Protein: Phosphate-binding protein
Amino acid sequence: MLKNKTIIITAVTLALIILSLLIYNFYISNTYANSNPETTTRIYIRGSGATFPLPLYEEWFKEFMNEQNNIVVDYEGIGSGAGQEQFFKGLTDFCGSDPPLSHDKWLKYKGKVLQLPTILGAVVVAYNIPEIPGNTHLNISGEVLALIYKGEIEYWDDPHIKSINPEIADKLPHEKIIAAHRSDASGTTQIFTTFLHKSAPDIWPEELVGKTIDWPIDKTGRGIGGKGNPGVTSVIVNTKYSIGYIEYQYAIKNNLPIATVMNREGVFVLPSKTTIQSAAKYALNTGLIPDSPDKDFSKELDAIIYAPGKDSYPITAFSHIFVWKHYDNKEKADAIKKLIEWIYTEDSKHVIEGYVAVPDEIKDIALKSINMIEG
Structure:
């Protein structure tokens, strides 16, 4: 009898222990699942496109993901042209593009796509001329650049170049100019060639404006293509007597000398926060930038490139992201909206050298997209 009671007590005790362990494990597992980001459902946002803002986007998306543990943003810098192609094929969730959509393409996707100017940047003219002292800058104009890329100015000591560089004219060598340019479909190229056409229309015709062009300099054997801003930067770094156009941050990162560029008022200016903002301020005052992200931005480049003002840097531009108004699921749409909200409220805290935050007027326009996106 005593033996049976002992067995029963032991069995009950074991049952209570097991039940306690099960309850404890259930509590711990649920608490862990709710607090540990590794066990939560992750939403992946994939984008591709412009290399112009790539260094900044890498910084932004890293900071955003640190704050949003369940959202992963993957962005690949493949050029604006390739990025647009992937986006419109449905291969990515958003696209990075320096120029906005052309009018015809906007009409095709009207009501489906939103365009958001994310950052202001500058295309700079970098060069590799050992004879020029490090404490001076080469002066360059749109007319001279157009003649160089047309292949009509062959040597660095050409009279056209010497005439606008009186202080270093005797330092300019009798060496052939190597002109670097993008080999891929590029928004940076569209910005640069737009500047060439606006500043020297008689030399650089409109048919030589675009993301990809048939570079006249290549026919002389003195043109070299590079993929993306990193590719063109590499060409300049590794090729003596070369010149090329790249986003400002790439010149800073690689310690490349940059030229002062003649603006519309005939003033040679360097890119800076002040000179970039001056061009943007003029663009906003033209009325060519629409008041909603679902409208046509195709005249934006014309408004900001080669803008008037003695302080305006002439090769200034916005870079953009394109997003859809409708996504297949609510989770993806909500993640996109969180990213947009972060960009236009936290961006100024994380802007790196070489870029300038967009004006508040642009932020207000872009934030309207949050109420337009559905999933």
Notes: Residues 198 and 270 are 19 Å apart (CA to CA).
